[in-house]
Amino acid sequence: MAPLLNLLKTGKNKKEIRVKVQQTNVVPPPFPLFKIVLEAFKALKEAFTSAPLLRYFDKNKPMRVETDASAFAIGVILTQQFKIDGHLHWLPVAYYSKKLLDTETRYGTGEQELFAIVEAMHHWRHYCRGARHPIVVLTDHANLVWFMTTPNLTRRQLKWAEKLAEYDFNVTYREGKKNPADGLSRRPDYELPKASTTSTAAETVRQSFRLGSNDYKPVQ
Hints:
It comes from Lasallia pustulata. The chain has helices spanning 14-23, 33-48, 102-105, 109-123, 125-128, 155-164, 201-210, and strands at residues 63-69, 73-84, 87-99, 135-139, 169-173. The protein is α/β, with parallel strands linked by helices. The chain folds into two domains: 1-53, no CATH class; 63-184, Nucleotidyltransferase, domain 5 (2-Layer Sandwich). A hairpin with a 3-residue loop joins strand 1 and strand 2 (73-84). The longest helix is centred in the first third of the chain and has 16 residues, at 33-48. The two termini are 27 Å apart.
């Protein structure tokens, strides 16, 4: 969750939220870890889905699409520039994440990162098609900067290139530690493995609690 704090530069409770998140890394924790994690998650969730951070889309403003892929999911953030107290800030307009299908988990790292861009453009096509400014796509996979001009593509990559051709965008490299979309692509509930035929129901429930699944909740 820590990379997501980069988006809280204009938030009123940034310091308080950072303390909650950092407490999750204390070993041993001052009180039960589940309580710390839950409080940190709730604080982040409230901050990321409330004004003044989450903004309405403005067709006249430039767009950035920030993307990331992990071994099991992709995460993307759509941001635009807004002026606050006389200064311009890139603030989120929308978030999107998706668990990869079994076939998609077998893509190479570069293809998974490219797939994140394709999915982002398609998911926000109502914003991205006919954009008034070239869209800046931020990725932590440097090779994708030259993807659209690469002559030798696989059949799958060629299909993706055709889909992306309808958008006006430029790919820019940004190192992973500065990428807030990193947290969206690593949701623990997306990482939950399928229960094997030999595992018991109790083992499945315990595994779900360890990985933070929402499928099993304590009885109120």
